[in-house]
Design brief:
The complex is a heterodimer of chains A (about 325) and B (about 280). With about 325 residues, chain A is mostly helical. Chain A has helices at about 1-20, 25-50, 55-70, 80-95, 105-115, 120-130, 135-140, 145, 155-185, 215-245, 250-270, 285-290, 300-325, and strands spanning about 195-200, 200-205, 205-210, 215. The N and C termini of chain B lie far apart (about 75 Å). The chains are: A mainly alpha (about 325), B alpha/beta (about 280).
């Protein structure tokens, strides 16, 4: 308890330092600009669909038929066909059970926004906070002041880590809330109870539907946000390590961005390189498992990705604490 | 607004962040539980059957909705503009019935579709039934892929068809049986719509050794007409004559599918058969 008493003011201090740097405002501002843009894009799509299709079922059956045409073509690579084949079976499941997978409402929009943001957008927002957490102190020269205080070094790093975790949670919840509020103004604040199917088991290019069950969309959204949180936390841990290792903030941001972007690109093209599944950024799309989208590399499962992310997280924590407590501050 | 003291600011940030974290961790827990220990549950949606549009004359109805099903001919393969006969038919119907709204409900054609698959889709697929029930005009093509062994996903300039006259003869009765299933099923789904079947043609008429294939094609067309004839709302439009002497004008470069003008002729014939 006494240790916590000493730690809490440190966390408070670090939290307020991040707040004073106005990074969080920038993030909110980015969200306030981006979400209306995507809302408008979605609005235009809905308008076109409304013009061309009388009912969502018409739209869905047309979409299935278009995918089937892609499947019938010889020129499409087999990997693309695989994901289409899976999509066809899932869409067919929705159609057969009379549930609209793309109902135009605020909650559905939020759900799809969050799942699209998990690989690049959320890591980017996390990096905006995490990258200069330690390296910023080196750049500004305040690291000496920080480390000469009568506090153990690991406590300083731990307080930084906990403050960062608090902000990671805030970013995700604020994004979801803003997304719902803004898109809801256009699409309506409904859709909480709409059923969403989850539990599609993908075997090769066919979908096993014996475990499929419907959950209300609010629960789906909650589960999705929880998975994004784990994914974002692993990015946070890694960027904390990079921030400890690299003393320049710019270099720290570039390193992490390169890692995250390369992971996203890799997951689009690594179907033949199987050991790529051990790279952390290939495993960031945890929400895909919930959706039932095929994983980037066959054989990846939620359990596998969680273990890989945990390994990377623990390793980077170990490196961060080891280096931070041992390193000499020279200049 | 009074600026917050840093103590209060910390309380607000801290409490809301901890609540957020708890919420997210709970969500993560639910997700893991749901995915690692999944249990299937049957879900019954509300069945939604659209009301059948009334039969009778098209000009007197509320509006014309066209649903197209079938193979690459209905898809419009070979038409450089991508319109095929279906979209051209929609335009012609708009001209023919200027006072009525005409729209394409769905074009669900799939390249390379064969009779067995279409029969299966009509029997099991709810989406097909839904789109067909809404229509008062149904147009379809099928059978070409059963009779001509074609490579699906045609690329330009590639020889797509390969005709074995004996095989063609052997395939005919089974293909017609499946066509009978299709026609019967179409009538069961929507007995009110005007249904038009586009007859087959011989795309190899200009190749002397395959020319007699046209006789088999005519047998198919003849039997197909007999199947459709049982239902007064169904008819067939012939196409074989377009692709005999004028084959160079109406066939696309893949030497199997019609080109834009060929599809235009088919569309004209369908629109002429409607009242």
């Amino acid at each position: 308890m006494k240790a916590l008493d000493r730690l809490l003011p440190l966390i408070q201090n670090e939290t307020l330092k991040i707040w004073k740097k106005k990074r969080f405002f920038v993030i909110v501002l980015v969200l306030l600009i981006l979400i209306p843009i995507f809302t408008y894009a979605q609005f235009r799509i809905n308008e076109t669909n409304k013009k061309n299709f009388k009912d969502w079922r018409n739209q869905l059956v047309q979409q299935i038929s278009e995918y089937q045409n892609i499947l019938s073509s010889d020129r499409i690579p087999e990997e693309w066909k695989r994901s289409r084949r899976i999509a066809v079976q899932q869409l067919q499941y929705y159609l057969d059970h009379d549930v609209n997978p793309n109902s135009p409402d605020g909650v559905t929009f939020t759900r799809s926004f969050l799942s699209n943001a998990v690989t690049l957008f959320f890591p980017l927002l996390v990096l905006a906070l995490a990258s200069d957490l330690v390296s910023g102190e080196s750049t500004a020269g305040t690291i000496k002041m920080l480390l000469t205080r009568p506090v153990r070094r690991w406590k300083i790093l731990l307080s930084k880590l906990l403050a960062l975790s608090l902000y990671v949670s805030l970013i995700i919840v604020v994004s979801a809330v803003l997304c719902y509020l803004i898109s809801g103004a256009v699409f309506g604040y409904t859709g909480w109870d709409m059923p969403v199917f989850t539990g599609f088991v993908i075997k090769g290019s066919s979908v096993e539907s014996s475990f499929v069950h419907a959950i209300p969309q609010w629960l789906y959204l909650l589960m999705e946000a929880g998975l994004i949180w784990v994914s974002a936390m692993s990015v946070a841990l890694l960027s904390l390590m990079v921030s400890v290792l690299v003393r320049s903030t710019a270099a720290s941001i570039v390193t992490m961005m390169a890692a995250v972007i390369s992971g996203t690109l890799l997951s689009n093209m690594t179907s033949s390189w199987h050991s790529a599944k051990f790279i952390f950024s290939v495993n960031l799309r945890l929400t895909d498992y919930l959706e039932g989208s095929p994983p980037p590399i066959t054989g990846m499962t939620l359990g596998f990705s969680l273990i890989i992310l945990a390994c990377w997280g623990i390793a980077s924590l170990a490196v961060s604490f080891f280096v931070f407590t041992k390193q000499d501050i020279l200049n | 607004m009074r600026p917050l003291s840093s103590g209060n600011l910390w309380k607000i940030i801290g409490i809301s962040a901890i609540l957020s974290t708890l919420l997210l961790v709970a969500g993560f827990g639910f997700a893991v539980k749901d995915m690692l220990y999944p249990k299937g549950e049957s879900f019954e949606g509300r069945a939604n059957e659209p009301a059948l549009p009334a039969g009778g004359k098209l000009s007197e109805g509320k509006g014309i909705a066209i649903t197209a099903i079938g193979d690459s001919l209905t898809k419009g393969t070979g038409d450089a503009s991508g319109e095929g006969y279906v979209k051209q038919l929609v335009e012609l119907m708009k001209q023919k019935y200027p006072d009525t709204s005409v729209r394409l409900n769905n074009n669900l054609a799939v390249n390379g579709l064969k009779t067995n698959r279409l029969a299966q889709l009509l029997e099991t697929d709810k989406g097909y039934s839904f789109a067909l029930k809404q229509a008062n005009i149904i147009v379809f093509t099928i059978g070409g892929n059963d009779l001509f062994k074609i490579a699906s996903g045609t690329s330009r300039g590639k020889t797509v068809g390969e005709l074995n006259l004996d095989k063609l003869k052997a395939e005919l009765p089974q293909g017609l049986n499946r066509l009978a299933r299709i026609v019967k099923r179409l009538h069961a789904i929507n007995p009110n719509a005007q249904v038009v079947y586009v007859g087959l043609y011989n795309p190899f008429y200009d190749i002397p050794e395959y020319r007699s294939g046209s006789l088999q094609i005519q047998q198919w067309n003849d039997r197909a007409y007999a199947l459709l004839h049982q239902y007064p709302n169904m008819t067939m439009v012939p196409t074989f004559d377009l692709f005999e002497n004028a084959i160079g004008r109406y066939l696309s470069s893949d030497h199997f599918h019609p080109n834009h003008d060929g599809y235009a002729q088919i569309a004209v014939r369908i629109s002429q058969s409607m009242e």
